[in-house]
Specification:
Layout: H1 15-19, E1 26-32, H2 41-51, E2 52-63, H3 71-80, E3 83-91, E4 96-103
Parallel strand pairs: 1-2
Antiparallel strand pairs: 2-4, 3-4
Length: 106
């Protein structure tokens, strides 16, 4: 019997909504094409900080679109929230990046 499964639910970003999400911490959170304004960076990382397991992995695909948010902004905010990052794929001609984030070990 295979006990593996995938679920998805709608979640509004931010610490308070993440705390009320009524969910055990996730081992893996994946996201793509979700950042369109700098104002979402702090709520995004508050959410990841609350919902990601202490040993968990957050995978983010980021495409540099015509939006006022740069990849450097995303990475800097992740560091502010205690995460380390590693680029696992980049397509420079398309300005497409895939990053993995983990909590910084103390």
């Amino acid at each position: 019997r295979n006990n593996s499964y995938v679920t998805s639910r709608q979640l509004l970003w931010g610490k308070e909504t993440a705390l009320a999400f009524d969910q055990e911490p996730y081992q893996v959170i994946m996201a793509s094409d979700i950042i369109y304004a700098a104002s979402v960076l702090v709520p995004l990382w508050e959410t990841i900080q609350v919902l990601l397991d202490s040993q968990g992995l957050f995978v983010l695909a980021f495409a540099q679109r015509k939006v006022p948010v740069q990849l450097e902004d995303v990475l800097r905010t992740s560091i502010d929230f205690g995460f380390v990052h590693k680029c696992i794929l980049q397509e420079l001609e398309k300005e497409l990046f895939l990053y993995e984030f983990r909590r910084k070990l103390e």
